[in-house]
Amino acid sequence: MKLRHWHLGIISALGLGTMLAACGSPARHDSAKANALEPKLAMSPGEALYTRKCGFCHIAKNTGTMMLERRLGAGNGELAKRTDLEADYVVSVARAGLMSMPAISRVDATDDELRQIADYLARNTKPQAVAR
Ligand code: HEC
Fold it and tell me: C-alpha distances in angstroms, 44 versus 23, 82, 117?
């Protein structure tokens, strides 16, 4: 009987240790990620809205970035770094959804907010280099 209790003690101590170890590194990673998703005062209103409304899929290695990298190649996954996005295209994808991206409703982002996001994403696009 005594031996059995001792064994249970060891097993639960080991279990707790593994759980703590498992939590340690993702927690650090998550806080770095959460920090990238925090709107900053220095951001333009469009960038801050983008960070808040689209960032959890489109900033850093999240579903949007990964799905777009699969389609467009490594390095082309982050919307904010693209140079071929037209504002009207961004608005229509956001309202209609696209494959695994859900449609963004007017409750999620008003027309005015979405326009600011789209203008931010299209800021580096020259008229001749438009994604269709
Ligand atoms: C729930 C996750 C999610 C959210 C939130 C999200 N997206 Fe997406 N988005 C995706 C995924 C996944 C794709 C890739 C679709 C595919 O090609 O399979 C995508 C694709 C796109 C594309 C297409 C890019 C191209 O080159 O064709 C645009 C533009 C876009 N998203 C804009 C936005 C904007 C603007 C917002 C915020 C208002 C937003 N997304 C919010 C997941 C998301």
Answer: 35, 17, 10
